[in-house]
Specification:
It contains 17 helices and 20 strands. By secondary structure, it is of the alpha/beta class. It has a domain at about 1-10 and about 65-375: Trimethylamine methyltransferase-like (TIM Barrel), CATH 3.20.20.480. The strands form five sheets. Strands 10, 11, 13, 14, 15, 16 and 17 form a seven-stranded mixed beta sheet that branches. A four-stranded mixed beta sheet has the order 3-4-2-12. A hairpin with an 8-residue loop joins β5 (about 75) and β6. The longest helix has 22 residues, at about 245-265.
Amino acid sequence: MFRNSMPRYEVLSEDAMTVLDGGWRRLLTEIGVEFMSDRALDLFRQAGQRVEENTVFLDPDFVLEQVAKAPREFDVAARNPANSVHIGGDMMTFGAVYGPPFVRQGDVRRDATMEDYRNFTKLAQSFSVLDSAGGVICEPNDTPLDSRHLDMTYALQTLTDKIYMGNVVSGVNARDTIEMSSILFGGRDVIEQTPVSISLINCNSPLRWDDRMLEAQFEYSAANQAVVLTPFLLMGAMSPVTIPAALVQQMAEALSGIALSQLIRPGSPVIFGSFLSNIDMQSGSPCFGTPESAIGLLCTGQIARRFGLPFRSGGGLTSSQVADAQAGYEALMTLLPTFLAGVNWVMHSAGWLEGGLVAGYEKFIVDIELLQMMRVEFTPLEITEESLAFGAHQEVGHGGHFLGAEHTMERFRSCFYRPLLSSSENYERWMRGGGADANARATKIYQSTLDSYEQPPLDNAIREELAEFVVRRRTELGD
């Protein structure tokens, strides 16, 4: 968890905000939003909103009344209290990549497995710059579809002692996650007092919330677990091509989902989600790390703050197929505005490749380096009389050097960021060491990190109860 106390980079004028405000209001009242759930429709109908078939036409003032019930900031508890986090305000919290069905190790691209899932979980536990392994770090294709969520949740709960994300494939999976969380933390009443998970509820843009996501949302919000209501917008495909139109659609979708969470349980924790980029208008392929996505990210931060909500966006996104120069500069194109906007919950912070289809081992290490560097860059500079080092000038004098000065000797171990991955060796020394490029160095780092991984302690009785739950539920689910 990182406190970003630097000024926010705001790009929207008051006039622009007024135009956007009128836009989302018009979408909700004239076009409406589809909710593919009878329970959701009944709640809106009971709240006095106009419902026609599956479309809800929302009164903007009603929506704002519901949004005002959501907490501006909230805590999420980890089983190791030292790893608990605070969501909102100046705090930034980071999780690993989410959702890829494939992995890449060096030159090999293949289906992800449960072993990969556990490996990425261990890597996330090993680097303090990450606050969470996330949720679906990769999709373990070698495990049964109906029960793999049990194995993934068990791995998150036992291989890490950090916060984790809940499974959202169905209401059944969400209930299983909540039950396992209750076992881990000592009861349903405990997790309802302070949430222990964050779950991603994606909108099927444009303007539709699907039944499976809504089923999961009902379970998590009813249990007072945090949900991220996220429009999934690729401009030109799931929204119009202009950034302002995408922003308006994003506001309408996110706010309607947040309103539903407050109808389910007033005061339940929510996060204003944003996943906004564009497509290649020649090929139709999704693009990431683009200037347009960076602008949208900065705008979203300003919008979420206007509504008084914590928000999710950003990460180390790229369209590149491998962890090459493109992957590095596109990831930075997304990560830098993530910090400038002060995003509160950052998914996809490490390991994202190929538009999110691939979790990359080497890219994971590249992103850890970027995250660590960004945290240093966004730590306010402390200026004191001591930091001016007048005494060092007195010691060195004119035309000398400061390498051996007392001021330098006292501080050389910690005065500058020490890279995890980058090399600054001269050419000859670099060649004597094997001439390894960043990818080769990243391979060694992730391998050595896995070799030295130590599982965090967990009470054996709790571990056994979780394992028994997984076995029992797997049988009940037919796997």
